Amino acid sequence: MPPRPPRSRTLSALALTLTLFGTGAG
């Protein structure tokens, strides 16, 4: 695992986490 992944991957992971949290909360 790279110490600093590309922004695209970070954004993707963030969006996925947000979606998962939203689904769990909703």
Map the helices and strands.
Elements: H1 7-25
Tell me about the biggest sheet? none
* Radius of gyration, whole Å: 11 Å
Give the helix proportion (percent range): over 70%
Structural class: mainly alpha
The backbone outline, from C-alpha atoms, is elongated
First-residue to last-residue Cα separation: 32 Å
Written as H for each helix and E for each strand, in order along the chain, the element string is H
- Give the strand tally: 0
Mean pLDDT score, rounded? 79
Low-confidence stretches: none
Count, helices: 1
Percent of sequence in beta strands:
under 5%
Describe the structure.
The protein is mainly α and 26 residues long. It has 1 helix and no strands. The chain has one helix at 7-25. It starts with 6 loop residues before the first helix and ends with a helix. The model has no long low-confidence stretch (mean pLDDT 79).
Characteristic terms for this protein:
single chain, 26 residues, mainly alpha, 1 helix, 0% strand, elongated
